[in-house]
Amino acid sequence: MEGENTKPKILIFGGTGYFGKYMVKASVSSGHKTFVYARPVTQNSRPSKLEIHKEFQGIGVTIIEGELDEHEKIVSILKQVDVVISTVAYPKFLDQLKIVHAIKVAGNIKRFLPSEFGCEEDRVRPLPPFEAYLEKKRIVRRAIEAAKIPYTFVSANLYGAYFVNVLLRPSESHDDVVVYGSGEAKAVFNYEEDIAKCTIKVINDPRTCNRIVIYRPQTNIISQLELISLWEQKTRRSFKRVHISDEELVKLSQTLPPPEDIPISIMHSLFAKGDSMNFELGEDDIEASKLYPD
Ligand SMILES: NC(=O)c1ccc[n+]([C@@H]2O[C@H](COP(=O)([O-])OP(=O)(O)OC[C@H]3O[C@@H](n4cnc5c(N)ncnc54)[C@H](OP(=O)(O)O)[C@@H]3O)[C@@H](O)[C@H]2O)c1
Prior knowledge:
This protein folds into two domains: 10-157 and 191-216 and 282-291, NAD(P)-binding Rossmann-like Domain (Rossmann fold); 159-187 and 219-277, UDP-galactose 4-epimerase, domain 1 (Alpha-Beta Complex). Helix 1 crosses helix 7, helix 3 (71-78) crosses helix 4 (96-106) and helix 9 runs antiparallel to helix 10. The relative contact order is 0.13. Strand 1, helix 1 (18-29) and strand 2 (34-38) form a beta-alpha-beta unit. It has helices at residues 18-29, 47-58, 71-78, 96-106, 128-146, 160-168, 192-202, 224-235, 246-255, 261-273, 288-291, and strands spanning 10-13, 34-38, 62-65, 83-86, 111-113, 152-155, 158-159, 176-180, 186-190, 211-214, 221-223, 240-244, 286-287. By secondary structure, it is of the alpha/beta class. The mean pLDDT is 97. The protein is built from eleven helices and 13 strands. The chain is globular. The structure holds NADP nicotinamide-adenine-dinucleotide phosphate (NAP). NADP nicotinamide-adenine-dinucleotide phosphate (NAP) is lined by residues 14, 16-20, 38-39, 87-89, 91-92, 115-118, 156, 158-159, 162-163.
């Protein structure tokens, strides 16, 4: 039919969250009919949650309210879409096994992208608290493979805006910057909007089916010390570097109570060890900026 939208319809779980919002907007602006499966908003929901729902409705997103254990409801929505992207939060990582099961039952999904969007968890071995976090993502990967669901696992590396805020604290007044480890290890910072736009290309690309795609553009690789220097040039200020050594980070990861032990272990992995750059990409690896040079 003339004018019919033939682009894959996308269902996003966790779409109201920090990264999910970028994903929803990228999906809508590239012309995909977009559905978001979200927990119901109630009178007790945070105003920001209500705002997000309103904003999504305003841009044509279909919101389906429900919980992840509403199997029949999820299966019936899956039958109306082609692609599923999950950006659910850490406490819900293993609940994605329910999505995997529903996708298997529905039988029509052309691609599933689970909630990854971080480091390449099959190739890093961080400190135990972060390792346990990644292990949940690995369990979901293995379940998707076993269910023979077409997938793409996205290793987006560091969310740029998120980590610039964490490291440089631009909205606070301060003279110091915390440096994790020596500050010399390189890391890959990719802006959330770029990650989301790239992911929309990935979902419909036959080259990325049943593959891991790593987002590692050369231009986005930078050490913590280099980032601080750039920030000093931009702000025409100088900041005192306060180092937390490798040993101190390990100790903190062992002594902080859960879940506070997770962020410190993540900082150790990303900045003291440089895990996002700690492995070479071989000929078999798919790197996003090579797939989409523009
Ligand atoms: N690469 C990086 O630098 C980086 C940084 C942070 C996160 N990440 C990754 O990005 C992905 C998404 O993380 P995020 O920080 O964007 O997630 P988030 O904002 O914390 O949450 C995403 C959504 O999950 C649902 N949710 C959250 N807590 C829940 C709970 N207790 N019970 C049920 N549902 C819950 C909510 O959706 P509803 O309320 O609508 O149901 C929420 O909007 C994760 O895989 C995470 O590991 C990567």
